[in-house]
Write a structure and sequence with these properties.
With 276 residues, the protein is mainly α. It is built from 10 helices and no strands. The chain has a domain of 186 residues: ABC transporter involved in vitamin B12 uptake, BtuC. 79% of the residues lie in helices and 0% in strands.
Amino acid sequence: MVNAWIVASIVAIVGGAVGFFVVLRGSAFVAHAVPSGSFAGAAAASLVGVNTLLGLGVFAVGGALGIGLLSRRGRHDVATALTLVFMLGLGALFLSFSAAYAPEIYSLLFGEVLGISTNQLAPTIALAAASLFVLGVLYRRLLLSSVLPDSAPARGVALFGVELGFLLLVALTTTMTVPVVGTALIFSLMVGPPAAARSFTARPYQAIALSVGIALVVVWVAIALSYQTNWPVGFFVGIASAVAYAAGRTWAFARRNRALHTRRHGAIPARPLVRS
């Protein structure tokens, strides 16, 4: 349980921070495609008998590079879809060779945070530190290219380089988070809390901090419920992320209605006091 809380908290911090740019750049499909495609790496690693984290990392980075290079002269969504189906095809081929590692593959699909061992802490912490370092280096260029993509080149920002760096950042985050929430629902953690945070505030620093806070609450609640029910933690992560997003959209809708009502009717000025 101690390992579960530590790793899940690290995953929430990195996923919430990186997920802010996933939502800001409209890259939710990428956040789904890279981890889902990296499942093929886990299957290949299990087949040859090496650490599945290594296979995840290799295929996540390969998928990110494939999306970046193919989308440079083509449609981004098409490049993402083609990369995803190619890696999923490889995963199906690798799994067909042997079913001996089915439980391990299942845990990578749907998460097994309560099965995190002590020897997984160091690689997870190292990948988290690397992800946050890359995010810090790319932060200003990512923000500028996401908000003002047309004027970013005039300010010395190479859009392709930033996009490639962002995709590699998603690959790093994927590699460390897959063992916790699984490839099938990892994008719920990288999309739900950040999207909810953006509903509450438009300021980047505040949105990132709020996104991390929501992600922490999501994974902590998911761990507790998974421990009590023995259901996959990924299920509870997905449900809690959806609830957080629904709450954010509801609050934003109510705020917009209040602002519209104020503009229509105006504030009633207070009557001045008249001395007798």
